[in-house]
Automatic annotation (TrEMBL), chains A, B, C, D:
Gene from which this protein is expressed: glsA
Group of enzyme by EC: hydrolase
Species the sequence originates in: Spongiivirga citrea
Molecular function as annotated in GO: glutaminase activity
Name of the featured protein: Glutaminase
Domain of life: Bacteria
InterPro entries xrefs: Beta-lactam/transpept-like (IPR012338), Glutaminase (IPR015868)
Length: 304, 304, 304, 304
C-alpha cells in the first residue's frame, strides 16, 4: 500500500477544512495554543514513518496519558485494579459525578477522569517515585529521553482542579482512594501535562500495535494478553461519550486528549497519531477524527 | 490451527461448569427451556464447520435478531436511520427509559430495545410485508428455508410487552415513531420469536465475518463499508451494559439474546455461536461468554 | 379585613402586567384559549364571595382535577392507596419517567401524572361508573349541577396521550396498574377535561378549607383528618417542581393546572381560585401565582 | 387544652416502643450516644413549658443548625442568597451530588448539605468572626449563654468530611463558592457540632413560632415576612426526602438532624423539640417523628 500517497491525500483534504470546534479553555493555559496547528504521524510495523504538518511539534497529551498510566498499573502487582475500576463505556460526559455516585465510587473505566484518578492512586501506592517513574516509562517506550512536562500547563491545571478534587473526595468517601487527596490530584495533573509530538506519541503507541513489544528489539514491555485488554478498553472507552461514533466511523482502538491529540492503533499494522486543537462538542479533536476516518477509508482497513 | 481440538477442549472445560445464572423469566414461555442446554458452532472461512453439544437444536434468538433488522435497515434507502438512532454504548440496562427521556426519544443505539423498535418502525415504513421479508432475509443468509418463529414465544411476549409499549409510546411522544404503536410492537416481537440453531446462526453471521458476501458465492448481500459499521456497533453495543466486559474478555464483535444465545465474528476468520440459557446478572449467557473467552484465549486471536 | 379592597387592589396591579408565559400547547385544543383571560374568586368562610375579571367563565381545570380524584380515592375503601403512590415532592418535571423507573413504578405523589393515573386505576376498580360518579362528586361539592366536560379538549387530549400511555404501560410492567391501559387513560383524560369557573372551583375547594364539610350545612363529605393529609400533599406537591417556590412566595396549600387555573386554601379561612392561561417555565399560571402572592402579602396571612 | 396530659400520654406511648432505627454512624463520635435517650420539650406561647424524659440533656444538633445559619444569612445584606440556592424540595437523599451536577452547582434548598455549605460560604463573606457570631446568635435566641460545641464531634466530623468536601469542590467548579474550600468546610462542621438540649432548642425555635420576635420581649430578631419564608422552606424541605411524609403525618414546619433531634413549630402556637438517636431509613429520628405525629393527632391541631 502506498501510505505516503494516502497521507498526502489526507493532508490535502483536511488542510482546507475549517474546524467549527473550539480549543479547550477550562485549563487557561491550553487555550493559548494556536487553533490552526495540524499534524499527523503514521508509524507502520512493516514500512516505517509517514507524516505531514506539525507532526514534530510537542503538545499537551492530556488524557492520552491515561493509556500509559493504565499500562503501568497493569504491570504493577495490583490484583485489585479491575475491582476498583470497571471496563464499561460510560455513556456520559468525561467527568460525570452522577454515574460515580450511583455506582458507589467505582468508576466506569480507567479512561474517564475518575478512573484515571483511581489508577493514579494505585500507582502512588506501588511506586517509589511516581512522577519520575511515569516519565521514565513514557520516555522508554517513545525512545526519546527529552520528553518532559509543560510546567505552565501543570501549574494552570493545578489552579483549576476543583472538579477533579470533587471526584477524588467522593471516591475517598466510598473507600476507593488510599492516598492523600492532594497527592493523587498532583500526580494525575502531572501526567496530563506531559508534552509529546505526534511522532513521539506514535512511537510510544507502537507497543499497543505490536503486541506489547518494542519494535525491532527483543524487549517485551508487557504481555500480549494485557495489550489486548488495553486495546479493548481503548476501543470501547477511548473517546468519552463518542466512543461508539469513533468505532463506527474509524474502527480503531484509540485515545483522545483535550489538547487536541488522538493516538490510535491497528493491531499488527501501525500506530497513528494526529494533532489539531479545536475540539467538537464531545471533547475530541474534530479534524483529528476526520484524518483518521480518511485513513481507514483510504486504506480500506479497519479492525472490523 | 487445530480448531477441532480447541472446540473439544472448550466442550470439556465448560460442560463440567455449573452456571450460577438464571434462565430468562420475564417472558414466561422462555423460562420453560431446560437450563442445561449447551451448544457451540464455529464456522471458519478457510476450514469449515466445528461444533459440540446442542448446536443443532433451535432456540429463540431474541435480541440477536436486532442485528438482522439493522442490516435490513441499512439496505433500505433510509437516510434518516442514524438521525433517529445513535451508535453509542448505553451504559445502562437494556430497556432503560431514563436515557431515552433524557435524550429526547433518540435511542442510544440500535441494539437496545428502544433502538430496535425505531428500526422496526423504519422497516415497516419501507417494506411491503415486513414479517415475511424479514423471515426471507434470515432464511437467505442462513441458507435454510425452514427457519420460522416459535408461536408460543411470540404469543407469550405479546402478553408481556408493557415495558416495550412504554418505550414506543415515549418515542412517539417525541416524534420518533411513524407507524401505529401496536404494529411496531407486533413486528418487533415477531423478530425476537425467530428460532434458529447455533449452526444456522453461524451461517447467517458469516456475512459479517466475510465482508458482507455469502461465503463461496458471488452474492454480495451488503457493502463491506456497511458491514464494518455493523461490526463496530456490535463491538461497542452488542452486550447491553456488559459490552466493555465482553470486549475486554473476548475481544470480538457480537450480539447476545436473552434466549441464551450469542453470535460473534472475527472479521476475515470465522463466525461463532453459542447457546446456554442461564443468564448472568447483566442478561448475557454466562457459559456462552466463557466458551467465547476460551476460544479467543486458546486460539490466541482476537481483533485486538 | 376589607377583602373587597384587597381584591380590587390585586385586580388593578395584575391587570396591567403582561405575562411572559405561554399558553399550554401540548394539547392543541388548549392553545385556542385567549391568553388575556384573567379572573380571581375568593370565598371566605366568614364573609362570603369576592371576585374580579373572568371569574365566572369556565375553563379546563386539567390537573386541578387530581385533587378531586385523590379525595374520592381516600373515600373509597382503598387500603393500598399510599402503598401504590407515595406522598413525596417529585423534584422533577410533571411527567417524568425517570423517577418512576428508578422507583419501580411507584409514583412520587398523587399530583404528578403518574400518580393520578394510579389513582384513576384504583377508582376504576372501586366505582361502578367512574366517569359519572366523578362528575357527580364535583357537581355536589361545587353546588353546581351544570358542570361537565369540554368534549373538544377531551378528544384532543385523547389524540395526544402517548406520554401518558408510556407512563401507564411502565407502571403496568411493574404491576402497579390493575385495569386495562386504555380504560385508565380514558378516565384520566376525562377528569382533566372538566370545565369549571373560578367561582365553581372556589366553592368546591371550600371543603379543603372547611375541614371536609360543606359550608353552612351539616354535610361532612370527608373526615377532617383526611382533609389535613390532602392539604399537606397540596402544600408539598401541588405545583410540580415549583412546590417550594409557591410555598415560599404564597404559603398556602394549592393545586395548579395547565389550563391556567390555580386553586388554593387557607384552612379555617377561605378558598381562593385564579385563572390566567399563560404558564411560566415550570407549567404554572404566571399571573395566577402573582395574584395569590399579593393576596397573602396584602392580608398578612399565610399558614406560616 | 391540657398540654401536660397530652405530653404525658405521648411519653407513655412512645417510651415502650422499641425503635428499629439505627444511631448515625458515619461520624464515629455520634455513634457513641446511647440509643435509648428520649426527650421532648413543648414550649407554648400562651402557656409555657412542658416536657418529659431526657429533655434537659444536650445533644449534637447537627443539621438543625442549618435553620439558624439560614436565618443569619437572611439577616445579612446578601441579595444573591436565593440566586445561589433554590427553595425546592430535593426528592433525593440528603447529600446527593447527582442533582447538584445536573443543576450546575445550584443546590435545591438551604437544608440539604450542599445548600448549607453555600450558606456557610455566604456567611464567611459577610461576617467578621463567623464561628463566634454564629454561636452568639444561637445563645441569644435560646436565652442560654453556656451553649457551645462538642469538640470531639467537631474533630470526628473533620476527619470524615470527604463527601462534603466533594460537594464544595463541585460547587466551586461551577463558581458557586467564594471562599477557601477548607474554611467553608470547617465553619459548616463547626455549626453541626453545636450541642443543645430539647429545652434550649425549643426556646431558640420560638422565634419561628412567634413571627420573628423573642417571646415576652420587644426584641424583633427578624422580620415576620422572612420568618414565613423560613417556615415555608422547613415545611417543604426540612426532612430530606421524607419532607412529604412528615408534612402528611405531622403537618408542621420543622427540621431534623442526624443526632436524633427534631425541632418543629406551629405558627402562633408553640415550638416543640424531640430527641431520640435511632434514625429511620431516611435519616430522621424514628421515635421523634412518632412523638410529633402523636402531638398533632392528640391536640387535633396542625397547620392544615
Amino acid at each position: 500500500m502506498d501510505y505516503q500517497k494516502i497521507i498526502n491525500q489526507i493532508a490535502q483534504e483536511v488542510s482546507v477544512k475549517e474546524s467549527k470546534g473550539k480549543v479547550a479553555s477550562y485549563i487557561p493555559e491550553l487555550s493559548c495554543v494556536p487553533s490552526d496547528k495540524l499534524g499527523m504521524h503514521l508509524y507502520c510495523i512493516n514500512s516505517g514513518h509517514y507524516q505531514f504538518g506539525d507532526s514534530a511539534e510537542r503538545f499537551s497529551i492530556q488524557s492520552i496519558s491515561k493509556v500509559f498510566a493504565l499500562t503501568m498499573a497493569m504491570l504493577a502487582p495490583a490484583e485489585d485494579l479491575f475491582k476498583r475500576v470497571d471496563v464499561e463505556p460510560s455513556g456520559d460526559p468525561f467527568n460525570s459525578l452522577i454515574q460515580l455516585e450511583y455506582e458507589k465510587g467505582i468508576p466506569r473505566n480507567p479512561f474517564i477522569n475518575a478512573g484515571a484518578l483511581v489508577v493514579s492512586d494505585l500507582l502512588i501506592s506501588h511506586l517509589e517515585n511516581p512522577k519520575e517513574e511515569f516519565l521514565e516509562f513514557v520516555r522508554a517506550i517513545a525512545h526519546t529521553k527529552s520528553i518532559g512536562i509543560n510546567d505552565a500547563v501543570y501549574q494552570s491545571e493545578k489552579r483549576h482542579s476543583d472538579r477533579n478534587a470533587s471526584l477524588v473526595h467522593l471516591m475517598k468517601s466510598f473507600g476507593n482512594i488510599e492516598n492523600d487527596v492532594d497527592e493523587v490530584l498532583d500526580f494525575y495533573i502531572y501526567q496530563c501535562a506531559v508534552e509529546m509530538s505526534c511522532k513521539e506519541l506514535a512511537m510510544a503507541f507502537m507497543i499497543y500495535a505490536n503486541g506489547g513489544a518494542l519494535l525491532n528489539t527483543d524487549s517485551q514491555i508487557i504481555a500480549p494478553s494485557k495489550i489486548k485488554r488495553i486495546n479493548a478498553i481503548m476501543q470501547t472507552c477511548g473517546f468519552y461519550d463518542e466512543a461508539g461514533e469513533f468505532s463506527f466511523r474509524v474502527g480503531l482502538p484509540g485515545k483522545s486528549g483535550v489538547g487536541g491529540g488522538i493516538a490510535a492503533i491497528h493491531p499488527g499494522q501501525y500506530a497513528v497519531t494526529v494533532w489539531s486543537p479545536p475540539l467538537n462538542a464531545k471533547g475530541n479533536s474534530e479534524l483529528g477524527m476526520l484524518c483518521l476516518e480518511n485513513l481507514t477509508t483510504l486504506t480500506g482497513l479497519s479492525i472490523f
